[in-house]
Amino acid sequence: MSQIPYKIYLTEEEMPKAWYNLRADMKNKPAPLLNPGTHEPMKPEELAGVFCEELVKQELDNTTPYFDIPEEILGFYKMYRPSPLVRAYCLEKKLGTPAKIYYKFEGNNTSGSHKLNSAIAQAYYAKKQGLKGVTTETGAGQWGTALSMACAYLGLDCKVYMVKVSYEQKPFRREVMRTYGASVTPSPSMETEVGKKILAEHPGTTGSLGCAISEAVEVATTTEGYRYVLGSVLSQVLLHQSIIGLETKAALDKYGIKPDMIIGCAGGGSNLGGLIAPFMGEKLRGEADYRIIAVEPASCPSLTRGKYAYDFCDTGMVCPLAKMYTLGCGFIPAPNHAGGLRYHGMSSVLSQLYDDGLMEATSVKQTDVFEAAETFARVEGILPAPESSHAIKVAIDKALKCKETGEEKTIVFGLTGTGYFDMVAYEKFHDGQMTDYIPTDEELQASFDKLPKMD
Amino acid sequence: MSQIPYKIYLTEEEMPKAWYNLRADMKNKPAPLLNPGTHEPMKPEELAGVFCEELVKQELDNTTPYFDIPEEILGFYKMYRPSPLVRAYCLEKKLGTPAKIYYKFEGNNTSGSHKLNSAIAQAYYAKKQGLKGVTTETGAGQWGTALSMACAYLGLDCKVYMVKVSYEQKPFRREVMRTYGASVTPSPSMETEVGKKILAEHPGTTGSLGCAISEAVEVATTTEGYRYVLGSVLSQVLLHQSIIGLETKAALDKYGIKPDMIIGCAGGGSNLGGLIAPFMGEKLRGEADYRIIAVEPASCPSLTRGKYAYDFCDTGMVCPLAKMYTLGCGFIPAPNHAGGLRYHGMSSVLSQLYDDGLMEATSVKQTDVFEAAETFARVEGILPAPESSHAIKVAIDKALKCKETGEEKTIVFGLTGTGYFDMVAYEKFHDGQMTDYIPTDEELQASFDKLPKMD
Q1: Would you tell me which CATH number, out of the four given (3.40.50.720, 3.40.50.2000, 3.30.110.10, 3.40.50.1100), belongs to the domain B31-65+114-228?
Q2: Which ipTM was obtained for this model?
C-alpha cells in the first residue's frame, strides 16, 4: 500500500452515479409525515402543492435503495466535486495521537458548505417540472447561498426568506445571494399572512428559522409556478447528501481504509445523514460495524435532550407534522449561539436510527467548539465554519483519548464548510466575549408542553 | 484523447518539485535594486538586514534556472495544492464561443488567494534562519492572511501593518489573521518613526500600501530577530509563484493542450509572473510562442500609462530603488477603487519583459470588471475576487472575439482568488453605486515629477 496522500480525490469515473437511500435498508422505517389537520399520513397529492413532484416521490420512498443522479446534476457536481477527503496529518502531529484522522471537506465551493449538493438537485427537479421559481428560508445563510447558486445556473427564480437577525448581522451573505440573482427578504416580513401575524404577536422579534419556513411555504403555495425547497431535515435532502458519504467511502476503499468511527455535526441532519449513509447501510445490513456519532450544540440539543415525538416543522404550524427528536417548534436557541445548528428538530431518519441505538449523540459547548476550530485552523489551514467545528471538537477529543490508550483508531469526520462569513463570532471568541448557554430543564419542559397532542 | 475533465488535478507525484527562475532565461536581465543613498546596486549584506539570507540569494540570482522546493514547503503545499486547472465549459456555453477557456484557480485555501505560495516559502526561510518572527504590510488583506497562516503553521511570530482604510472596512479579514495568531496594526501607526512622521504630515490619512511597507520595514530592521517579507513585486516572490505556472503547464501537457494566450491580472505582478513563468521561459528560449497579456485596473495603470524608471518601492522612501513601470511612489488610486491591484509599481522582471515587447498589457474599468465577475460567478459557481476578475473580463472579451471570427483559440487565465471578503464592493455594484475613475494625464505627470532623480 502506497503512502496515503494528504488529499484523496476521486476521478470523474470513480464518482458515484446514484444517490443511496438509507431508508431502504432500515428495518424500522422513519415515521411518516402527518397532515397537521387530520393527523393522517400526508398523501403525495397533498405534498405536491408544496414540493416538486419528483421530490415528493423521493420524500415518500422508503424502499428504493438507489436513485440515479440525472446527467445535468452530475455535470454540475463536476464543477466542485469530488470534494477532497483529507488526511489530517498536521492535526495528528499537533495532538501527538496515534489515531488516524480523515475529514471530508465540503467547503470548496462558493456556497461554502455541503448544502449545494441538495440545492442543485431540488432546483433541477423544479426546472424539469417547468416551474418559474422556488422559495426557501435561510438562517446562517449557507443554504440560501447554495440555492441561489443552483438557481442562477439553471435560470430559475429564487426567493429567500432570511431570518431577520442574520439578514442584519450578515449583510455579506445577503450580497452573495444577490450576486447570484436571488431576492432576499428579512423574515418575518409583511409580505405574508403568517409574517404579519407573527409580527403582530411579537413586534420586536428578530425571527427564527421556523418562522422563515412558514413564510417561504406560504409564498410557494400561493404563487403560481412556485414550490418550496428545504435545505435539511427532509428525507429527500438526506438522499441527495448521500453523495458525501458515497464519495468518502469510495476514497477510503481505494486505499483499503476502514474507519472505526464517523463523526458529524447535526442541526437538521443533512450533513450527518449524508456522510454516514453508506456506512450506516453496511451496519444495517450487518456487513460492517462503525461507531457513528452525532454532535450537536449544548444550546440546541435536540437528540441529547429532546423528545421523540410528532411536532411541527415550522413555527407558524402550517407544515406537516414529523416524528423526530425535537425541542418543540417554538424553541429558539439563546442569542449568543453562533452559526447554524439551531433547528428545533432532527431528521426523522436520523431520529429513528438514534432511537434504535444505531447512532450515538453528544453535545458540546460553544467556547470549546471555537477553541477546537482555532486549533484546527492553525495546523490544517482551513478556517472552519462554527457548525463543522462541532465535529472537529469531538474528533479531537476522540483522538486525544487514543493518545491515552495508545489505540490507533481511524476517525473520519465531516468538515461541512468554511467560516468566512462567521468572523463576528470568531471576533467574540478572540475578545473573550463568547459565552455558553445551556437551556434549563424548565425551559425545555415549557417548550415540550406545547408539543401537539396526538391521538 | 479522452474528454478533458472539468478540473485537471495533478497527482502528488506529478507536482513540481522545483521553482523556475524566469530570470535565468532572460537576455535582458531586470535592472538591479539600488541603494537609495548611493544609487549603487544593493549588496547582499545590505539586503540581509531586511530580508532572510536565503531570500536575499534568491532575490539577486539572475542565472540559476531552478531552485529545489524544500521538503517542508512541499509538505505544506500538499495541504492545498495542486490547485485545479478548470475547463470553463459553462462559461464557454454561456458566451457561445468556439474558444476553449481554462482557468487556474488559486482560491481553494483559507487565505483565498495564490499569496500562500510565497508566504510559506518566506516564513520557512525565516524559521530556518532561527528568526523569531516577520513583519509585513497588507492592503486588501490576502497577503496578510496568507502570511498569518504560514507563520501559525511554523510557529513564527507575525506582525502585520494593515492599511488603515482596509483595517476599518475589512474587520473580518483582520479577524482571520487574528485567528491565525498574527498581530494586526492599522497603518500609519504611532508605533514607528515613519508612521509618526506620515501622521504628522497627513493627520487624516487612511494610509496606503507604500506607507504600510515603510512601517513594516522599520520594525523589521530595528527589532532583534525579525525580518521583513513582501507578498509581491520582488523577484523572489515571482520565483515562488512559478508553482502556479508549472502546475498549469503540467496539467495542460498531460492532455496535450497548447494555449494560444495566457491572461493574468497584474498589481505588483506576483500572480502574473508566476502563472506565465514556464510559458515565457519557452518563449525566451524560442521553443514556443504565446500571447501573454497583463490586465490592470484603469485606475492604477502602471504598465499601460506608467514610466519605466527607477523609483522607491515604498512611500516612506526607506526601501531600495527598483527599476519598474511606475506611477510614482506617491500615487494612490482613487478611493472608489475596490480590492487590490493598487500598488504604484510593477515587478522589475515583468517590467523588463514588457519593455522588451514579450508581453502585452491592457487596462479595464472597474464596473466592467464587476459585470464580468457576476457573469462568471453565475455560470462557473465561484465568486471571484475583484483582482482576479480583471483577468476574467479580458478572457471573456477574447472569447467573444473568437465568436466573431470563428477561431477556436485556447485561452488560459489565472483566477487568483475568491471575493468572500469583498462583498462591500459587490454591494456597491448591485446598488448601482460603483463608479469608475481614470487618473488624468495631469495627475500622473504630477506624480512622475516626483520620481527620484538618477544620475
Answers
A1: 3.40.50.1100
A2: 0.88
